[in-house]
Amino acid sequence: MFTETQLEKATNYWGKEVFDRIAQHAKVYADKWGLTDVRFYDSYSMNAIFYCSSKTYGECVLKIGGDDQDKEFVWEHNILQEYNGSQYIRMHASDIDLEKRKKVMLLERVSPGDELSCEPSLDKRLAVFSELFKKMHVQPANIAIYKKYSEGVDDNLNTISKRMECRDLSEHMAKARDIFVTIASTYTQEVLLHGDLQYHNILKRDDETYAIIDPQGRIGDPIFDIPRYLLVECYNMSEDHRDEQMNYIIEYLAKSLKIPSKIIRQCFYIEITSFECWCASVGDYDINHVTFAEKIMTAE
To answer: Long-range contacts of range 256-264, CB-CB < 8 Å, 24 or more positions apart?
Structure first.
């Protein structure tokens, strides 16, 4: 299940108590769900990932939560349950009991699983994103169990406005919130958003279709699922032709999704400003990203 190196790294990362619980749950649910060839995927985050096989479901992923992000794990579980496949990966089984520190899901493993980021053609990436986006947003069974996109915007403003050393970012976040309020007065749907719909979370299947993973669970208008994709494309571009490329991407999506370019540009500014507020909360931020987004927002 673990190599010696993985044992040491995992214990250091999660701490012995949490790691022991993860390892125990891996063994318990491998037996409960008839899983074989269970092997730890060498990645370290809030959740532990194991690759495994099932006679019933074929190749699977066993996902076990650590001690943090209980709400996020439950949101992901609920979204996968609501979609029951479709554009998202399928959830085969689950067991969640937060009081007993159990957060376990058995998920479809996408094969070959290449991220959309591996696709060298920008037009192909945008075409895949567009087709998934057009079909993916549904009404949740219970809106109240998810966090609204607007709450994240408000949280970022409230947090950053208290930090005097981040005054430049705070001013941008206040501006971004005002723009968000204006957009939200027109784009008023309340559907399930992914929350992190970008090319690392879109995986290729054997039949050349793509599946979406790792939903964050947000409620809002579909347009607010566009800018995270733009952000990740932007942050992975060289600066040489970044203006030209971002303008091209936005105009492509505006035409493909039939959404005004101006709105997508404003959403891009809101998302980057919000993301840099998060960066400031965990370390440092780069105001240059925000001023670039502002420049793109005001481009003709």
So the answer is: 256/126, 256/127, 256/130, 257/130, 257/133, 257/134, 257/226, 259/223, 259/226, 263/183, 263/187, 263/223, 264/223, 264/226, 264/227, 264/230
